[in-house]
C-alpha cells in the first residue's frame, strides 16, 4: 500500500511540474482542446512516475539522470505526436529544435529540483545541529 501512495504522490508531483512548465513555456497561448491538456497532464504524471528511478541506491546519480532523461524524452515525443498530429515532427529542423528545447527545459527543471533538494537538506542539517547544541547547552 505504501508503494501505491508513493507512486500516486510522484504522479501528482509530475503533474505539478508539468503544469508549471506548461504555463512557463507559453502553451496556454495556443488554443489546445481540453483533451490535449489532459494528455499533457497525463504525460507529466508519467514523468513523475519515471522519477522513481531516483529511489534506487544500486545505480549512480548520473546514470539515474540519464535513464530519467531518456524516458522523459520518449514520453515528450509521444506527447508531441499525440497533440500535434499535423506537424511534421520528424522533419530534421523541427526535431532538432525540439531536442534542444527539451534539453534546456530538462536541465532547468533538474537544476531547480537539485537546488530545492540541497536547500531543504541544508535546512534539516542546520536544525539537527541546533538541537544538538541546545542539548549540550542544557547539560
Order of helices and strands: HHHH
Mean pLDDT: 84
Radius of gyration: 19 Å
Query: Which descriptor suits the 3D outline?
Result: elongated
How much helicity do the residues have?
A: over 70%
Strands, count: 0
Main pleated-sheet profile: none
Report the sheet-strand fraction. Answer: under 5%
Oligomer: single chain
Low-pLDDT regions:
none
Number of helices: 4
Cα distance, first to last residue? Answer: 43 Å
Overall structural class, as computed from helix and strand content, comes to mainly alpha
Please explain how this structure is put together:
The protein is mainly α and 139 residues long. The chain has 4 helices and no strands. It has helices at 2-24, 34-50, 61-83, 92-138. Helix 1 (2-24) packs across helix 2 (34-50). It starts with a helix and ends with a helix. 9% of the residues are buried.
Topology:
Elements lengths: L1 H23 L9 H17 L10 H23 L8 H47 L1
Helix pairs in contact: 1-2, 2-3
Compact description:
By secondary structure, the protein is mostly helical. 79% of the residues lie in helices and 0% in strands.
Salient structural properties:
single chain; 139 residues; mainly alpha; 4 helices; 0% strand
Amino acid at each position: 500500500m505504501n508503494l501505491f501512495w508513493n507512486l500516486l504522490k510522484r504522479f501528482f508531483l509530475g503533474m505539478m511540474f508539468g503544469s508549471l512548465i506548461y504555463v512557463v513555456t507559453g502553451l496556454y497561448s495556443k488554443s489546445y482542446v481540453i483533451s490535449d491538456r489532459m494528455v499533457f497532464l497525463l504525460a507529466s504524471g508519467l514523468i513523475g512516475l519515471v522519477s522513481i528511478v531516483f529511489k534506487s541506491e544500486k545505480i549512480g546519480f548520473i546514470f539515474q539522470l540519464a535513464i530519467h532523461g531518456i524516458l522523459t524524452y520518449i514520453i515528450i515525443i509521444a506527447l508531441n505526436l499525440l497533440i500535434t498530429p499535423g506537424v511534421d515532427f520528424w522533419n530534421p529542423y523541427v526535431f532538432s529544435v525540439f531536442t534542444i528545447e527539451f534539453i534546456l527545459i530538462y536541465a532547468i527543471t533538474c537544476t531547480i529540483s537539485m537546488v530545492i533538494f540541497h536547500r531543504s537538506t541544508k535546512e534539516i542539517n542546520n536544525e539537527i545541529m541546533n538541537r544538538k547544541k541546545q542539548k549540550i547547552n542544557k547539560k
